[in-house]
Amino acid sequence: MVKETNGHFEASLFKTADRLRKNIDAAEYKNVVLGLIFLKYISDSFQKLYDRLAQDSFSDPEDRDEYIAENCFFVPREARWAELQAKAKLPEIGIYLDDAMSAIEKENRELKNVLPKVYGKANLDKASLGQLIDVISDIELQAHSVDTKDLLGRVYEYFLGEFASAEGKKGGQFYTPKSIVKLMVEMIEPKKGRVYDPACGSGGMFVMSEKFVEDVIGGNIQDITIYGQESNQTTWKLSKMNLAIRNINSKFVAWNTEGTFLKDEHPDLKADYILANPPFNQSEWGADILAEDGRWKYGTPPNGNANFAWMQHMIYHLASNGVMATVLSNGSLSSTNSGEGLIREKIVKDNLVECIIALPKQLFYNTGIPATIWILRRGRDPKDNQTLFIDASELGYMKTRVIRDFTEDEIAKIEETYKKWRNKNGYEDIAGFCKSATLEDIAGHDFVLTPGRYVGIVHEEDDDTSFEEKMKHLTSTLAKQMEQEKILDDEIKEQLSKIGYTL
């Protein structure tokens, strides 16, 4: 296989893997591929420790306890990558892989009911499966100057995004675009404490938090403890594998069929940081059952839309000095349906809303509608009751025919604007982009939080040319264009006459 430069090998790898998909749809195939990447990861980690233990005369490399002590998954012999790769061309390879996944779950309690057992299915071509094993076996050979410790994590993350794109609306249920996650994490800066996501999908918020702690501020991943909940079991499994590859403890990432509202798995949690992209405009979420729930401090949300149910659920779980960033549909900024306007007003009056960011359309795989990032913070100085509005709705570029994305510079622009404002260090209002508004300003807009109402429009600079001069120039240009049009019309008539047609 041709080696790729560091930055493009993930795309090349995905194309290769996708060519082996054949008649399997993307939703099913992702479990096949991601499961194998995870298996490769834990097998490689196991083998590295195994080789080290084998050199120590006082250690037994087959002793499971040795691996527990090193926080490493124990991989039984029949599930080790080298053993499976040797059987890759056998027609029974699917059965061997399913058995391997079961054996790993048996030896590692935290992986129970997590790993996919889909490889023995009749619709999965076993020859292609064997080829896929070979492709994944050679991952390290495909990139230059890459830290192999992080390599499989990168591949897993990239594949998640590509499968989400392939699945379209269904993909958006488990994946939030990387640029949005990065922006949210770097704005609230999770440094030390409890990080919570009540609709955690495949765990992207946690992975980006880990990257921020280790790569941006040079901290230790052990400085944060993650708490999450997911109602879709398949998605929850993806998150558990995603976090395991990153060596992130997922002990408190829970799944149940009831969902976060009806069965809160962390009822007593007070989180220092909350990051979430909950379902947009969710209806029939259980308002009739939970009408008197203690989470609805600012009013009972309507059953037809769970936006402010999610918002209040997160506020309820926010520590006394905690900060949260959540994505909601644009309707949450202005809706007055069924008491939503009053709930929003009370939240604003409680001095919680620190920043509102309007996002462009087509950022998300599951919907083309524009959305908004809300940043809320407890413990704000009562005297500092301003809210920063940022209108980023015109930023971004078309990554594909249907999906928009932010550039790194655009992410930096939004982040820097917010931090300058928050730190009171060089911030200035920019017409058409950002505005720091007082509570009185917001009240004057009836507590509608749409950034466009506050930032205004960009003022075009006057070039000092008089109206008369501009009109003289325009009419002169028009006259020349009309004369040219006449010449072209005459030429067309002449050419048509030569072949026997007249106008």
Helix coverage percent of residues? 40-55%
What structural category characterises the helix and strand content? alpha/beta
CATH architecture of the largest domain: 3-Layer(aba) Sandwich
CATH topology (fold) name of the largest domain: Rossmann fold
Largest sheet: 9 strands, mixed
Mean pLDDT: 89
Approximate strand percentage: 5-15%
Please state how the strands of the largest beta sheet are arranged side by side.
3-2-1-4-5-7-6-8-11
Counted by DSSP, the helix tally is: 16
The ordered H/E elements are HHHHHHHHEHEHEEHEHEEEEEHEHHH
Number of domains: 3
Distance between the termini: 63 Å
Radius of gyration: 28 Å
* Global shape: globular
Low-confidence stretches: 1-6
Provide the CATH top-level class of the largest domain.
Answer: Alpha Beta
CATH superfamily of the largest domain: Vaccinia Virus protein VP39
Count of distinct strands: 11
Multimeric organization: single chain
Description:
This protein has three domains: 9-167, Ferritin; 171-455, Rossmann fold (3-Layer(aba) Sandwich); 466-503. Mean pLDDT is 89; it is low at 1-6. A nine-stranded mixed sheet has the order 3-2-1-4-5-7-6-8-11. The chain is α/β, with parallel strands linked by helices and 503 residues long. The protein is built from 16 helices and eleven strands. It has helices spanning 9-19, 26-54, 64-69, 81-86, 93-107, 126-137, 148-167, 178-188, 204-216, 233-245, 307-316, 340-349, 408-422, 439-444, 452-455, 467-498; strands at 193-197, 224-230, 253-255, 271-276, 318-329, 353-358, 371-377, 387-391, 397-398, 404-405, 434-437. Helix content is 42%, strand content 12%. α2 (26-54) runs antiparallel to α7, α8 packs across α9 (204-216) and α8 (178-188) runs parallel beside α13. The N and C termini lie far apart (63 Å). β9 (397-398) and β10 (404-405) form a beta hairpin.
